[in-house]
Amino acid sequence: MGDTVLLDTLEILRKSGNKIPEQVWETVEDAILGAFVPQMTVGNERPCEESDFKQYLLNIGSKLKAIALIFQQIVQNLGCDEFHSNKQISKNHAVHLLILCGEHSIDDKWTTKETIKYSEELLSLLCKLWCCKSVSLMLIGDESRQEYFGLFSVALLSLRPKLEKNTWKTYPAAVSCYQWLLFQVKSPHLSPHLSSVLPTALIILDDFVLDNRICGIKCLNHITDNVTRTELGWSGHGDVIYKALEPLLYQREAAIIQPLVSCLITVLGKVEGGYIRDEPNYQWSRYDDVLEKLLQTMEMEDSLALRLAYITSLPPLLAAAGLRICRWSKRLLHVCGCYLEVAGHSQQKEAQHTLLAVQVFLHQCWPLVPAHSQILLEMLLRLLCDITYKEETTGRELDAEEQHILNLIEDCLVLVVKIAPEQSKMLCLDLKNRARFNRIFETVIDKVFE
């Protein structure tokens, strides 16, 4: 929008009072559509780069500023009731403006701090015009009003041509807008739109670009978390999501592991077992399939970044699987022992999450602890010796992370001794008398066996 057009439009608005001429709405419509991020055909060949949007970034800031000035004047001229009285016009403009703001909702290759600021300002003005308190209410509708409808379906319909299987990679801003719109709608309002939002998330997931896969995983996690178990069962939606996520377990990329496991936990929580959380159904399930693949990969992994990603994801997965992890106890403890051998010397984050996994095992599989007490005590006491040995040799006090690890070790040892007192007493018979390695070690042992 040129300066002359902007000034003419503002002048018309100042003179028009509370009646907005059709000419102004046409100017606003053209300005909004002209500010959309253009199609990038290069996206079919490679991921879009910041240089691809160089031309777009030259004037998008001034375009959004002009649109914001016009809407500020419209807000001054119009009350919300007047704007809402013509639903067709208000709906079209609101949807187009929502999509434009969604494209500039987060920091990305086609956005700047200036465009994000104007996007937030435009959303605030739009909420005033639509007589609602938030973007979420605008999307889902406000039941407190006599005439209400949400804009979510209309916005998805408007975005659909850009998010088809053959076009979505050329419209990266439309993908960002879809994710932003999706995250604004939560339970129970997302359920009616399940068949509309799920295909796009699956299309984004099925890509070779890491960022797109992570985006698809986050969208699927949000969808699964905000619909009911019954709705996921309709037409096998839950099974489709699981089948789409399962192959990603074999991919060795640290950035994808945590969101992937988190999404799988959400999906399995809805599609496995009964409606009662602790229903006693311990037959082989897809929890076991995931644990089998994950533990197998963890055993062979030597990359520190991947090891940390895997072990960080393990405790919540074990907690979600519950008593099912009993059948994996031997393999699980072997993995934890191997990770603690390395983590005790340098990888403190890895040690913390490994100990959390051991804690989950102790709580969930306590009947098996006596049979595995020797392995548990060996790995915990070895790590305790490694951690406390540093304090004695370097002469410095333990830092916050080391102290946290020490507390976790103590908690795990207390649980082992409490659950398997006879075995612990027999295995640690001479520990209190002969193995007095250092002051902190002695203090912890005294607390555990008091």
UniProtKB/TrEMBL annotation:
Name the UniProt record assigns to this protein: TELO2-interacting protein 2
Cellular component annotations (GO), alphabetically ordered: cytosol; nucleus; TTT Hsp90 cochaperone complex
Source organism, top-level taxon: Eukaryota
Short name of any one Pfam family annotated for the protein: Tti2
Recorded family membership: Belongs to the TTI2 family.
InterPro entries tied to this protein: ARM-type_fold, Tti2
PANTHER family: TELO2-INTERACTING PROTEIN 2
